[in-house]
Amino acid sequence: MSDFAGMQDLLQDFLVEAEDLLSGVDNRLVELEKNPHDKNLLNEIFRGFHTIKGGAGFLGANELVTLCHLTENLFDKLRNDELSLTPSLMDLILEATAAVRDMFSYLERSVQPPPAEESLLERLRAALAGKLPEPAGGGTKSQADAVDSGKDGGSEPDWELLHQVVAGETANESKATPKPDDAKAHDGKAEAKAAPPAPKRASVPAPVRRPAENRDQGIRIETSRLDQVLNLAGEIGLTKNRLTALRSDILAGKTDPDTLHALDVSVNQLDLLVSDLQNAVMKTRMQPIGRLFQKYPRIARDLARQLGKQIELVISGEETEIDKTMIDDLSDPLIHLIRNAVDHGIESPEERIAAGKKPEGTIQLSAKQEGDHILIIIADDGKGMSAEKIRAKAVEKGLISADEANGLDDRQSLNLIFLPGFSTAEKVSDVSGRGVGMDVVRTNITKLNGTIDVQSEPGRGTTFIISLPLTLAILPVLLVRLGEQPFAVPLSMVREILPIHLDEVREVGGRSTLVVRGEVLPILPLSLLLNWPMTRSPNYGVLMQMAEFSFILGIDSFAGREDAVIKSLEDFRPKGVAGVTILSNGQIVLILDMKELFETSTGRQGVSKKELEKYAQPPEAVMQPA
């Protein structure tokens, strides 16, 4: 039986509030480290922790209360100037907040958390007595460690190799570079000796990750939004009653112009009300992205301290709203990108000074809405990446041919880092080894119907741009046709539509291409991607933009744009199909998963110009012998 039988509602309420409070405490602690004499910050931290302790006491989580009480007493002594905030004391406090978060993971399973590590409790008591020994067995535990612990293995980037490519090192230099156990080397050079020593990792009990199917399905909604939904539902009810009365009149033979006009007005009114209701319901799913961003300052701070770096994480756009269902799935990719920026993007203070930069590096995390999409940007002012070196490394590893490499511009070359084979699991640093590669980051973003792009300039820094739809419930699509059969493709991947004239088609490497504003793009007929026999040459091309490459999707015709309400295929989902939607005329249309379709189809090899010309001829000419 659960340790919290009969208290599930109270427990869930506590966890929702306590998670937010603890994230707020962590962020304020990071701010406090920069402004150690800010009493207002200390008071806010004390109040947040006191609230957590009170809720834990009400639930009878005594071990959590014990840990919170000792940590709260430290805050009280800092408020009263009985203790001074030092880096080692901050490490100890953050280690305690990480242990509190670990205890939450037990509560999520309705299990009483075990005691915190005795060594942690002893060091807290010693600090309260004015004695602050060096952490026994290690300093802070990064919040990212808590997030990443217990994950399944996956493709893991060879960060050492990637970093050599990023920095433009030669193979000989990389072989001569010793690989330390801790994160003391960056670009084959020693980290800043003047920086504080990197604390070792704490052996705090590993958190228990909540399975995806057990994630909290609740959502907090502003009352005003629910009021709007209720008001619209009431208006729709009144309109329905009016339509019912008009229907009875028409069935009784009353078809005069006034009755028909009233019917037309009521149908139009119902159309507007349903559209407003749909938008209002969508808004109830939206949550400020700040709830996702709030844990990242702590992550960046912990990692920077481990590496002896000086880094400021600047966050903006926290008020931007995003579909609640995306927040959990965005967490790991963003953590990975931030850790990558701290670990490999930002140089050591010594390297930055030598390059004419200020010793403190800056990482910017921002969000904003553009049209029907959300943009999330992670930018650093570090060493940047060399497109030429990445292109050469991809050829060396056999991921692309030399001919393909020659056809890539800098943007496409930088996106090669998302290819699974670009990284290996043989060499990983203690900091970055988390079982998540850049290819998995891209895959997770793609599952959200989003895209990720990278921009970089050697010596200036790197920027990752994630574009996501406002909601996963409605997907803007372009309707294309093969013969009379319609298909839907995500509009977010469509750059433009253009006609295909055979006299403009050029053959490169045995496959048909078109030159669009200086960019050579292969023509991939949709019929071949679907593994259907090609019976005619495509009349139109849809310029599709995937993460690291573009191509022209050959189609017969197109039927416009729709906002598709996605219906999943629960029991049977063919490869390359993301779901289905129903058009306004009642027709069922498949929504294509272009990434999966491309990766699993033999049609991605394209088609020769001769084949296009063959199927452009009349059918009787095709049957004639050569």
Automatic annotation (TrEMBL):
Phosphohistidine: modified positions? H50
Q: What Enzyme Commission number does this protein have?
A: 2.7.13.3
Per UniProt, the enzyme's principal EC class comes to transferase
Give residue spans, biased composition: Basic and acidic residues: 176-192
The molecular function terms of the Gene Ontology recorded here are:
phosphorelay sensor kinase activity
The chain positions of domain HPt read 3-107
Which residue ranges are recorded for the region named Disordered?
Answer: 131-157, 170-217
Q: Name one Pfam family in it.
A: Hpt
One GO biological process term is:
chemotaxis
User: Any keyword Kinase?
Assistant: yes
Identify the keywords attached in UniProt to this record, alphabetized. Kinase, Phosphoprotein, Transferase, Two-component regulatory system
Which Gene Ontology CC terms are recorded?
cytoplasm
Matching Gene3D superfamilies: Histidine kinase CheA-like, homodimeric domain (1.10.287.560), Histidine kinase-like ATPase, C-terminal domain (3.30.565.10), HPT domain (1.20.120.160), SH3 Domains (2.30.30.40)
Compositionally biased intervals (Low complexity): 200-209
Presence of the UniProt keyword Nucleotide-binding in the record:
no
Against InterPro entries, the record matches this protein to:
Bact_Chemotaxis_CheA, CheA-like_dim, CheA-like_homodim_sf, CheW-like_dom_sf, CheW-lke_dom, HATPase_C_sf, HATPase_dom, His_kinase_dom
The Histidine kinase domain sits at 231-472
Reaction catalysis annotation? ATP + protein L-histidine = ADP + protein N-phospho-L-histidine
CheW-like domain mapped to chain residues: 474-603
Task performed by this protein: Involved in the transmission of sensory signals from the chemoreceptors to the flagellar motors. CheA is autophosphorylated; it can transfer its phosphate group to either CheB or CheY.
PANTHER family referenced in this protein's UniProt entry, alphabetically: CHEMOTAXIS PROTEIN CHEA (PTHR43395:SF1), SENSOR HISTIDINE KINASE CHEA (PTHR43395)
Q: What is this protein called?
A: Chemotaxis protein CheA
